[in-house]
Automatic annotation (TrEMBL):
<keyword id="KW-0378">Hydrolase</keyword>
<dbReference type="InterPro" id="IPR027417">
    <property type="entry name" value="P-loop_NTPase"/>
</dbReference>
<dbReference type="InterPro" id="IPR025669">
    <property type="entry name" value="AAA_dom"/>
</dbReference>
<dbReference type="Pfam" id="PF13614">
    <property type="entry name" value="AAA_31"/>
</dbReference>
<feature type="domain" description="AAA">
    <location>
        <begin position="1"/>
        <end position="178"/>
    </location>
</feature>
<dbReference type="InterPro" id="IPR050678">
    <property type="entry name" value="DNA_Partitioning_ATPase"/>
</dbReference>
<protein>
    <submittedName>
        <fullName>Soj-like protein</fullName>
        <ecNumber>3.6.-.-</ecNumber>
    </submittedName>
</protein>
<dbReference type="GO" id="GO:0016787">
    <property type="term" value="F:hydrolase activity"/>
</dbReference>
């Protein structure tokens, strides 16, 4: 199982759009996928038409220890399950502050689910922060994919984010690696986007071979700015269901192909540990 954290502490860079459409695209390719919404904003859940009400179990119940992932996930399309989130999840940050092993709650939950249910992919949509939810995602992950909007300050934020992956690798997850950066909200033909992309490639090319991002690549598929991607969530649909031939659907289909092509290189630490 590939366990992928979609992470960037900067807000509005395309994490949720990428998590949802990658998960949906992989499911359409026959992969069994579980998307875990780790953002109290619940945008990934809403994007796929889930608005948990009443006693419907959510990611919060998993962190509280009341429910397992298997009891929480919902089937939303063929091969695609979602563990939804609501604002309740914001309390997790506080409730876990003093808990021993607070960083490994999700990893343990995933391990338990993997014992009985073989998913091909588990994708985690992280919130725009480096708090305990994101640390849980990094501790559970086999790899990190970073959505990045190419603008002037993007690389500064990236260094902080990469330092966090290095810290988590040292302390909590020795197998963690950054597999790639996906350029989102890409403005084709602009000088700025091209310059930032060149800087990013140069920066990754000079990485310390011991760093978690030593083998990180910039995905060839760039996700262009496309209004259909912004419209799809209000219909509770992935871009593939909402507008299957729009540029956004083509870009995410290309990304999914690249991710599947990388399957041979990945191996789950859960499997390695077994
Ligand atoms: N390629 C794109 N073209 C057009 N709109 C996009 C694109 N990618 C994302 N958006 C829109 O930009 C906004 C931010 O995207 P998204 O929610 O995916 O970012 P995020 O990183 O998850 O944000 P947050 O940090 O708040 O979780 C959303 O309204 C989304 O619909
Ligand atoms: Mg989001």
């Amino acid at each position: 199982m590939r366990i992928i954290a979609i992470m960037n502490q900067k807000g509005g860079v395309g994490k949720t759009t990428s998590s949802v459409n990658m998960a949906a695209g992989l499911a359409m390719q026959g992969k069994k996928v579980c998307l875990v919404d780790l953002d109290p904003q619940g945008h990934a859940s809403l994007h796929l038409g889930i608005e948990p009400m009443g006693n419907v179990p959510t990611a919060y119940d998993v962190f509280s220890g009341f429910k397992t992932l298997a009891e929480t996930r919902q089937l939303v399309a063929k091969n695609l399950w979602v563990v939804p989130a609501t604002l309740d999840l914001a309390a997790t940050e506080l409730e876990l502050v003093d808990a021993e092993n607070r960083e490994i709650v999700l990893r343990e939950a995933i391990k338990k689910m993997a014992e009985t249910e073989p998913f091909d992919y588990l994708i985690m949509d992280c919130p725009p922060s480096l708090g305990v939810l994101t640390v849980n995602a990094l501790t559970a992950a086999t790899e990190v994919i970073i959505p990045l909007q190419p603008h002037f300050f993007a690389l500064q934020g990236l260094s902080k984010l990469l330092e966090t992956t290095a810290l988590v690798r040292r302390r909590l997850n020795r197998n963690l690696k950054v597999s790639g950066v996906v350029l989102c909200l890409y403005e084709t033909g602009t000088r700025l986007a091209a310059d930032v992309t060149d800087d990013l490639c140069a920066f990754l090319g000079e990485s310390d071979p011991e760093a978690p991002w030593a083998d990180a690549k910039v995905f060839q598929s760039r996700i262009r700015r496309n209004i259909k991607l912004a419209e799809a969530p209000s219909y509770g649909q992935s871009v593939f269901d909402y507008s299957s031939s729009c540029p956004g659907a083509k870009d995410y289909a290309g990304l999914v192909e690249e991710i599947i092509a990388g399957e041979q290189a990945e191996e789950s630490p859960l499997q390695q540990a077994a």
